[in-house]
Amino acid sequence: TDEVLKKDDRKASERHRTSLETMVTAVNALKESIEEKKFVNGEDEESVQEWSSGIEEIVNQADECMRELTSQIEQIDRNLKHASALHEHKREIELEREKLRQKQEAVERAHAEEDVKKIHEFYEKLLFNVESLQTLQSINKLDAAVRFTFDKLDVIKNELAMIDENWSEWTFVQFLEALEKWTINNPVQGVESSKTKAVATPYTMAAYLGGTGAISRNRWKPRTTATHQSRHTLYPINPVMC
């Protein structure tokens, strides 16, 4: 029994306990049969009791072993139940963490989409202002303010700077071209954009940028008066105030 208990194996303990129960049952039945024969043969009760005491001691030892085995089996069952509950608890925690992670990702995506939308709005506003100032032939006077306007785009400032290592020397036109490329590569979700087609038209910044960043007038056609009027009602002219 001691060897079985050391194994701490439920199946082994269960088998050993069952064997002991079978053995004790058989011993008790045999003891009673022998006691009966002893009485039939004329032996007195004291003599029979003395003989039986040795058998009962062995049976008591077997009973104690069975109690120890039963206690071990119950402890193993409790440990398994606790381990199962702990595993289930950990699984629930992991599921909750996964839900929180998905929720956080959804929030971050929503924020990112909102940022993209704001950048698109900023681009449209700046585009109108630059075109308006170009019409007034005043755009070159504000090139020094590019850095100030650039710093407003903290969310994507590093991305824009990677386009050209000389970004700090950009004119407003060059800055707008870089911003246009970014909006094309990062469209607003759920909004059909025509900017991809606009890249090939003479109305985009890429079409009227000269090699030095100045506007090539013979390659650029201003937007219609109606377009300017509709945008003028939405945005101020000063690009620095975008």
Helix content: 55-70%
Instruction: Outline the biggest β-sheet.
Output: none
One letter per element, helices H and strands E, the order comes to: HHHHHHHHH
Low-confidence sequence ranges:
196-242
Overall pLDDT level: 76
Work out the number of β strands: 0
Through-space gap between termini: 87 Å
Find the structural class using helix and strand composition: mainly alpha
Total of DSSP H or I helical runs spanning 4+ residues: 9
Radius of gyration of CA atoms, rounded to a whole number: 46 Å
Dominant shape: rod-shaped
Percent of residues in beta strands: under 5%
Keywords: Coiled coil
What report would you give on this structure?
- Keywords: Coiled coil.
- The protein is about 70% helix and about 0% strand.
- By secondary structure, it is an all-alpha fold.
- Helix 2 (about 10-40) runs antiparallel to helix 3 (about 45-135) and helix 3 (about 45-135) runs antiparallel to helix 6.
At a glance:
With 242 residues, the chain is mostly helical.
Supply database-style keywords:
disordered C terminus; 9 helices; 242 residues; mainly alpha
